[in-house]
Input
Amino acid sequence: MIKALAGISPQIKQYLIITGNYWAFTLTDGALRMLVVLYFHQLGYSPINIAMLFVFYEVFGVITNLIGGWLGARWGLNKTMNIGLGMQIVALMMLTVPADMLTVVYVMIAQALSGIAKDLNKMSAKSAIKLLVPKGSVGSNNKLYQWVAVLTGSKNALKGVGFFLGGVLLTTFGFKGAIQLMAVMLLFVWMWSLFSLKAELGKAKNKPKFTEIFSKSSSINLLSAARLFLFGARDVWFVVALPVFLATTFNWDHWWVGGFMASWVIGYGMVQSIAPRFTGQTPSPRSAALWAGYLAVIPVLIAIALHYQFYVQFSIIVGLLIFGGLFAINSSLHSYLIVSFASSDGVSMDVGFYYMANAMGRLIGTVLSGWIFQVYGLEMCLWISALFIFISALIALKLKN
Output
């Protein structure tokens, strides 16, 4: 075993360290979200009010991705990744205060810190892959797509596992005990990461100016706009509307809702990991429009089934599973394209800008999900989802092959 590890190339070793780092962070991120949801549900908060606890998480995700890419290019991706881990530990410890101090504003601030940490970690991990695939090697584009797919898919699968973990930890150790346990686990990962990641990873040769945080590449700008509408389309019905609908219409308790959502995320991540099997090993940029077109059909069909009350529970569950599979392929394809388009020197600048658009889409989707569902219901959320995907497809058509 030791001999096998010793024979691994330096690029693979760094990839494994980054992946392990990202996995550990993702587990705590998913578990923390479920802990907050379940704990504040127990305190009597409505689902929409609980969702609002995560608004700062998304808002600061937008800011972090924009600035974080610039910091990664100036400081190196090892530093931004380790700063993200350290901030997550602080965010966790903030939630270990006595229960009467856990006000909405206080939790929103802790979630804001966690959102910054998450996007620093994700931006660093996604950017680093571009630098670790040997340039000019045979099948390097194939390998890049495979590495991106595995990292992205495993992250989402583990986030689903984190949802389950959050429920188990809350039941076993209580809210404070669960948070403390995760903080200790992440502390060990952080210490390991500090001594393992290469210091020069991702540092640009020419220090970029702050004014250069906005991408000048038309391909990256188009792909970022397509990503914004793609993720807005998912979250406009998935974040608030769907959980509330399942609980109120089907009378599912929060364990059923949480378990179903976690299973969906795990399956979504598994499909992401094998996306190259569906799209081909080196898909063209415009294939993003084709796969978005396939995806747009699903919310339309579910909305029609809801309108005509056609086996509503069956239609939503099956429709959500199909939507998840197609969305996973779209997401993985986008993740490959941004890493492929990004410049090797200061890669985090391009990736950070792109994931800023991703976070903006999540923020818009989250806010619309609560408002549209409350005023118009789930059916309208689905129609807006289809519209957003259609817009994403039209934008992707402009990408050059």
